[in-house]
Task: inverse folding
């Protein structure tokens, strides 16, 4: 018990050894807890970089990351948001325990292939940069669970991204991408897919293989047909297809009984399938400005519950009795 003596007040020293041991553990707990806390640092010149688990260099007007970044060999989360960074130093590849890297809102033009050596990465955020392409080397990041490439200038995604089979969230919205990368259906762990704000013309039938999806956004594209296979997405809760060229909603949408939010605004729709009556979980339905002509009678009770905020045309078609 001598090794615990320094942690125990003198008035407790005459107690039984068993009781004393419990007290020793009690007094040690704060020390142990403190040792397990994550060390957070915001200075690239920190005295003990090897102890740092979280390094936050956001909002520092940085134009480049100094090579000293390589000293933080145990860092697990690296925040570099809201700077003027153009590229990354090769020394960043020394961060072999890095799990999360945040590079949002910088000036990166070339995809930083230096990070492709960080095979422990699970989250990578590169939104709001100026990238025009994604390196095929991204396939090395096989542990990635979240990837955000939104708000760049990317016009094509490499087929090698199909190897990122552990992805649960993928966001490449607001780019100039014309097609979803080949083999995307292999990313079957995906729960959130955001491809909005691009130039996609075809939503491939293979999307039906992503049966873990809970949210699918392909809004603001040039899609004219929703594939029948969309009805295979049994876990889907949010479907956003607004601002496309869609003329018909497939009957299979009735299979999506988990759907809570559906946005159909600004398409070329004239009616809805009767099968939508099966969407018993539906909370929000945005019909918006479509050239609506008629709604099935069996849907009118459902639509009446969701008339708030709908267009005058929709309200008229729903509430006007049949002649």
Result:
């Amino acid at each position: 018990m001598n090794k615990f003596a320094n942690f125990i007040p003198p008035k407790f020293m005459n107690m039984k050894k068993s009781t004393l041991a419990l007290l020793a553990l009690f007094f040690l707990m704060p020390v142990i807890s403190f040792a397990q806390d994550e060390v957070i640092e915001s200075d690239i010149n920190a005295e003990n970089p090897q102890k740092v688990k979280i390094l936050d260099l956001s909002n520092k007007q940085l134009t480049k990351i100094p090579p000293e970044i390589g000293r933080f060999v145990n860092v697990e989360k690296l925040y570099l948001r809201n700077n003027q960074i153009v590229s990354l130093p090769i020394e960043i590849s020394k961060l072999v325990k890095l799990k999360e890297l945040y590079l949002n809102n910088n000036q990166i033009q070339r995809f930083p292939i230096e990070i492709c050596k960080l095979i422990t990465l699970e989250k990578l955020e590169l939104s709001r940069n100026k990238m025009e392409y994604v390196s095929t080397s991204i396939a090395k990041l096989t542990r990635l669970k979240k990837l955000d490439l939104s708000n760049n200038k990317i016009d094509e995604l490499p087929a090698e991204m199909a190897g990122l089979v552990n992805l649960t969230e993928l966001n490449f919205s607001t780019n100039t991408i014309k097609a979803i990368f080949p083999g995307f259906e292999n990313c079957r762990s995906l729960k959130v897919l955001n491809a909005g704000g691009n130039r996609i013309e075809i939503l491939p039938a293979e999307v039906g293989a992503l049966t873990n999806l809970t949210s699918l956004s392909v809004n603001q594209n040039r899609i004219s047909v929703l594939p029948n296979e969309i009805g295979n997405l049994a876990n889907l809760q949010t479907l956003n297809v607004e601002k496309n060229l869609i003329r018909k909603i497939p009957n299979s949408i009735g299979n999506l009984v988990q759907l809570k939010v559906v946005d159909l605004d600004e398409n070329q729709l004239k009616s809805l399938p009767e099968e939508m009556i099966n969407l018993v979980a539906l909370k929000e339905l945005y019909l918006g400005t479509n050239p609506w002509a008629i709604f099935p009678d069996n849907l009118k009770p459902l639509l009446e519950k969701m008339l708030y905020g709908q267009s005058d045309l929709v309200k008229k078609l729903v509430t006007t009795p049949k002649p």
Remarks:
- Residues 300 and 318 are 6 Å apart (CA to CA).
- Residues 1-36 have pLDDT under 50 and may be disordered.
- The two ends are 93 Å apart (CA to CA).
